[in-house]
Each structure stands twice: as structure tokens, then as C-alpha cells.
Amino acid sequence: MSSKRTSRRRRRRRWLGLLVVVPLVWLGLEVLLWPDVAALTTTDPETTAFIERYRRQQRRQGTDPAVVRTWLPYGSISPHLKRAVVVAEDIDFFSHDGFAPAEIKAALRDAWRERRAPRGASTITQQLAKNLWLSPSRWPTRKLREAILTWQLERYLEKRRILELYLNLVELGPGVFGVEAAARRYLGKSAAAVDAGEAAMLAASLPFPRTHPPGSSSQTYRSRVRTIERRMALAGWLWKEI
């Protein structure tokens, strides 16, 4: 009996040891691999987690993994395009600290009423953190990383810099990343010259850029274009923010 009790105690100690060691190893790796968020104040990223994910997907399918992307400074991007993206994705972008509790509550309320999974309620800053460094996964650890990175982005970067990064890195069509590449591909002009209607067309593809790229003929996409145009007409106050 004594040897059995000793054996059980040893097994318990081993499990307790693992419960302590595994989280410490995970934490150590997180610290070691954690991105330098502050560096984005002056440095433009060469790639993102989502761009690399797209390339891997294309290689697995045996298709061209080429990505179209051209950086355009914030001051050169059409103000219509900035307004269209903000009203489409995060109307309170310039007034919140990276998180939008009211949107989260509304998403949960709608999900409960309609008996479905919650719709997206991420701010532009949260989307940027995910695009830069994370995956689309909904695992709690991924959401925790996103929250910390969002807080860091808001801490180190000005709002206009966050929006500049987002506009230059977001996917706007299969393999098309950033507003300049999208404007060239779908409108035949620079994002600097985009008017209000064209801005709404580009912004409308943001939720589903691969299935509803700019200019899509789907009713869902067309309805979203009209919604964004209405919001832009009502959001005159954004002119002073952008």
C-alpha cells in the first residue's frame, strides 16, 4: 500500500509540475516572439500574417501566390476613401481607445435574438492587430493576444498612423492588399484620386474581399455600397478628423 501511495504522489507531482512548466514555457515563447509594436511609429511593415497566410493557401492550391501591394502615405490617400472605410468599419474610430463596448453589446444582442453566432464587432485597430500578427482563429488565447496588441497600437501610434497602416495592409480583393493596389486594379486610378462613390465601392468589399471584390454584382455587395454612401453623407464631422 505504501508503494502505491508513493507512486500516486509521484504522478500528482509530475502533473502539477507540468501545470506549472507548460504555461511558463508558453509565456516565455510569447515574450520572445512578441512583435515590436512601437517600431510601427516610423517603420512600414514589409508583410503581414494575413498576406503570408494568403500566399500559403495559394501554394497549397497550386496557384500563383503573388500579392499586389503598393504603399501610399496617409496624406496622399483620398479623404473620401478614409471616410468611406471609417463609416463602413468603425464609425467611432477617432473617439475610442481601440475597443467599442457598445458594438460588442449590440453584436451579442443581435446574436441572441437571431439565434446565431455573433457578428463581427472589431474596431479598425483590432482588425489591424489581427491582420499584422494573428490568424482568423477565435481561440481565447488568440483573442487575448489581439486585445494586448490593440492596446499597444493605441498606446504607441496616433490614430492617423493606425488608419494609414490599415488602409495600406487590408485585403481588398483576392491577393490585392491596400487601397492603392485596389484602386489601380479595380478603378484604373490611384487611391489619391478616388471620389466619394468610388470610395464606397472599395470599402464595401472589406468584409468579404475575395467573394465580393470591388465592383461585384452581388446584391449583398450593392446594398452595402448604398449603405456606406448614406453613412458618408451623414458623417460630415469626419472631415476634421481625417
Could you name the key traits of this structure?
single chain; about 240 residues; mainly alpha; two-stranded parallel sheet; elongated
Total strands: 2
What class do helices, strands and sheet pairing give? mainly alpha
For the sheet with most strands, the description reads:
2 strands, parallel
* Count of separate DSSP helical elements: 10
Q: What is the CA-CA span between the terminal residues?
A: 76 Å
State the assembly state of the protein chains.
Answer: single chain
Unreliable sequence segments: 21-30, 105-120
**What is the N-to-C succession of helices and strands?**
HHEHHHHHEHHH
What does this structure look like?
With 242 residues, this protein is mostly helical. The chain contains 10 helices and 2 strands. Strands 1-2 form a two-stranded parallel ribbon. It is elongated. The chain starts with a helix and ends in an 8-residue tail after the last helix.
Question: How would you briefly describe this protein structure?
Answer:
The protein has 242 residues and is mostly helical.
